[in-house]
Amino acid sequence: MTAHANELAVHVRGLRKRYADVTAVDGLDLGIRRGEVFGLLGPNGAGKSTTVEILQGNRSRDEGEVSVLGTDPATGTRAWRSRVGIVWQDESTPAELTVRETVRHFARYYPRPREAEEVIGLVGLGAKADSRIKALSGGQRRRLDVALGVIGGPELLLLDEPTTGFDPAARRQFWDLIRLLADEGTTILLTTHYLEEAETLADRLAVVARGRVVAEGEPGELRERYGTGATVTWTENDGSAREERTGTPTRTVAELMRRFDGEIPGLTVTRPTLEDVYLRLTGQESAR
Ligand SMILES: Nc1ncnc2c1ncn2[C@@H]1O[C@H](COP(=O)(O)OP(=O)(O)OP(=O)(O)O)[C@@H](O)[C@H]1O
Asked: Based on the structure, what is the number of domains in the chain?
């Protein structure tokens, strides 16, 4: 890999992975800078989890170059693993242990762990610290999984759908945690199906479809680049609602102003949302 690759926390070139007759990842390229929050979006089966598993060193690849914190995950040592935080989808932790015991237990695996009490508080499990794992709700279980992913104080956090099953309050609390970790300098890669989550958290995004990146950039940039046009709506004097899709909304509004000689009744101008752009890029407009 080049010197440039080492400035990136994650560098992927031409990644390919097949499972029997399914090509899950098909020439994927990715560059994640140190210190950024990077979102990976894509429909079910696009190859996101497979990619994250390869980055974690938990799945082999067929082709391509991969560097994670300067190391090929396929040959990652224990020291390398301690620098990479992973949130497992189904952590097999002993159900009889309490939250505090579990977090403290996992802390021992790392050379420089975070403070267990602090991490329990950060994921919003302070009131449940003495509860046994078997008594936690599904969403609380996921929060514990997140706690175990960050207890080691990782430089890079790899999160595959971290907030699935979270209630809205827990999701916002998780966002605060991600921002806090990012402010401390942690690089974060997360996959998500929640566009709002991606837009709120990610400095940059990649949209994956059929195993490759089809668009990449800052959320606002993607909207600008792929979400051309706007929708102008207004109400006619006879009370009927009107709508016009246009690439030049300012001109449309100016024309309406002249016609109405001033205030335009019920005027709205809406730009495409990230969700509109996402659906367009992944060819799912018809799914709406
Ligand atoms: N262990 C496996 N064996 C065989 N096929 C697999 C395996 N894991 C994934 N696949 C297939 O590879 C493709 C990509 O799956 P992957 O889980 O990486 O997608 P994803 O983008 O994470 O999807 P989702 O959003 O549903 O989690 C899918 O067609 C899936 O069925």
From this structure: 3
Give per-residue pLDDT as tens, 135-152: 998 888 888 988 999 999
Q: Is 24 close to ligand 1, i.e. is its CB under 6 Å away?
A: yes
- Shared domain for 160 and 266, answered yes or no, is no
| Residue found under tokens 């449309």 | 252
Pair 161, 207 in one domain: yes
Q: Over the stretch 209-222, which tens digit does the pLDDT of each residue have? A: 999 999 999 998 88
Facing residues of 30 across strands? 12
Q: Summarize pLDDT for 48-86 with one digit per residue, the tens.
A: 999 999 999 999 999 999 999 999 999 999 999 999 998
Instruction: Check pocket membership of 266 for ligand 1, CB cut-off 6 A.
Output: no
* Structure ipTM: 0.96
Measured in Å, residue 235 CA sits from the centre of ligand 1 at 48
Q: Is 44 in the pocket of ligand 1 (CB under 6 A)?
A: yes
The residue to mutate among 12, 21, 28, 44, having the most atoms of ligand 1 within 8 angstroms of its beta carbon, is 44
92: phi then psi, degrees, rounded to nearest 5: -95, 70
Is residue 110 situated within a structural domain?
yes
Q: How many helices (H) and strands (E) does the chain have?
A: 11, 12
Q: Which domain holds residue 247?
A: 225-287
**Considering the domain boundaries, does residue 67 fall inside one?**
yes
Nearest CA to ligand 1 atom 2: 19
Question: Where residue 4 falls among pLDDT bands split at 50, 70, 90?
Answer: low
Distance of CA 52 to the CA centre of its chain: 11
Find the CATH number of the domain harbouring 190.
3.40.50.300
Nearest Cα to 270, choosing from 241, 251, 249, 252?
249
Residue nearest to atom 5 of ligand 1 (CA): 19
- Whether residue 20 is contained in a domain is answered as yes
